[in-house]
Amino acid sequence: MPVISIDGHQAPQIAFGLGSSWSKGGDGGVSRKVVDTIKMAVGAGFTHLDCSDGGYGTEKDLGVAIKELEHEMHVSRSSIHITTKCMTLPHDPSTALKASLQRLQLDYVDLYLIHAPFEYKTAEQIQAAWAQMEALREKGLARSIGVSNFRPVDLVPIYNTCKVPPAVNQMECHPYLQRRELNQLMREHGTKTFSYGPLVPLLKVEDSGSKPLSRYLQTLAAKYGVSADNILMRWQLDRGYGVVITATEESRLHEYLQSSTFMLAPEEREEIERIGLDFHFRSYLVGAGKFSREDRL
């Protein structure tokens, strides 16, 4: 598994996500199916596990899975990188994280993110929330802190006043949504990209009948003896991004890990980028008070 440096800590570059596709909503009970899938993912080689608080309702499942992994497979807590997010109390990350740690049955998380910027009405509100995030890092409740779905307009207030800049911005990113201005801003401040929806060009756009990348992805897949999914993931990894994926079948998990067995040539990465810039598609968080389809930032 390739690694990425987050705030001086090494983390697996490919994370197994327990987000929207697993959403139960609220603070429901533990799902045996989710627990067993987490254990299957760890057994397949995924040791970066990504979840969120009450909005998806999977923190309890992850907490149970970690305990069972410790007892059944002798997997130590220190060998697993846990990411969770403040989704339900964006103005009070301190209270939100304490509740998350109870559900996860943990003393700390490796990475804690503010899930989205949409609840903040002013720059001062964002700055106040980030000051709480810095305090949580200082107390050791989160080894690293970051954000998710933040745009330049949301990040600049943090950069202007922070003691510790966001280590990560987790966001939808793929060849049809390259976020060039945003990624440049983040590079200048040492904030890493972790992309979710890396397979959107195949899973969503192909279904709509628009296939600008399809032929080239298949050509590269044949050359490297992997799937077109692997080519899209490798494009992200080669750019230094982390990637969040999910799956319910063990065979798919093993397939995704093949993305770490090869590298694209520079001219192949550039061609994927060039073709992708000719077509725009945003899949997630589109709607009132969030993003518009046309928003490329």
Automatic annotation (TrEMBL):
Keywords: Oxidoreductase
Active-site residues, Swiss-Prot/TrEMBL: Y56 (proton donor)
EC number annotated for this UniProt entry: 1.1.1.307
Site (Lowers pKa of active site Tyr) location in chain: K85
Domain (NADP-dependent oxidoreductase) ranges: 19-275
GO molecular-function terms, A-Z: oxidoreductase activity
Pfam families listed in its UniProt record: Aldo_ket_red
Domain of life: Eukaryota
Reaction it catalyzes: xylitol + NADP(+) = D-xylose + NADPH + H(+); xylitol + NAD(+) = D-xylose + NADH + H(+)
Residues bound to substrate: H115
Keyword Oxidoreductase attributed: yes
InterPro entries referenced in this protein's UniProt entry, alphabetically: AKR, Aldo/ket_reductase_CS, NAD(P)_OxRdtase_dom_sf, NADP_OxRdtase_dom
Function of the protein: Catalyzes the initial reaction in the xylose utilization pathway by reducing D-xylose into xylitol. Xylose is a major component of hemicelluloses such as xylan. Most fungi utilize D-xylose via three enzymatic reactions, xylose reductase (XR), xylitol dehydrogenase (XDH), and xylulokinase, to form xylulose 5-phosphate, which enters pentose phosphate pathway.
UniProt-recorded name of the protein: D-xylose reductase [NAD(P)H]
Lineage of producing organism: Eukaryota, Fungi, Dikarya, Ascomycota, Pezizomycotina
